[in-house]
Amino acid sequence: MTRILLVAQETGGVGKSMLARGVAEAIPDAPIIEIESTQRIREYDHGKTKGSKRVAHFPVRADRASIDRTGGQAARAEFDAVINAMVSVTMPSIVDIGANTAGSLLGSFDDEFVAGLAEAGIEIGLLVVVTSDASALTDGAKLLAQSKRWTNARFVVENKLRGDVDSAMLKKVADDAEITMLAKWEFEPRTVGFLQATGLYAIPGLKTSDFQKECGFSEARRMVSDLKGFRLAVMEAVRPAAVWLAS
Asked: What global pTM score does this model have?
């Protein structure tokens, strides 16, 4: 049995790709399928040869409304390459689904697709990230409801970057999905820039001296401490999903 974990949220800017990276850190050998208008997860293939890439990027149009307007074969075939790749996986894999894409992709998973996965011995899990924003809660609830009949496991991460989600609302949105939490972190501006540029991959090897020349010892010390703490917090937030994927 092979497992695939979809990391999804229709609303952008909620930390979805960072959580996908957290799963990638927890399971270092897991291939990553990235569905985005432009590739963002690049750090895992830095310096590698073409034949050994960990990340497979599948470009999609960022504006789903434009796809719906075009209709016809172009719209129907939008996810063919992605679905073919998913049905062909041979080891636990991570699928990072870009904002404005998850609803359309999950909506294309018909009975034939589900049967094809079963025949290939593939199980699917879904990790949805939510924040206190109404749009993220609404979209998260839709994705979880949409996927209930064909997922083998479902997980929700409450990212507190914009405050707490009401506990009753969170339970209602999550339904029977396992809930974990990622606390809000306050970073130095340079720390934010580093995370945006490199993700989590380079953090374990960082030293204060790596930043000391640019920003001084004291700030460099805080940066390294914050980055290492944040990486561990992200990995802890996705731990149940990562354990399911790897088992």
From this structure: 0.93
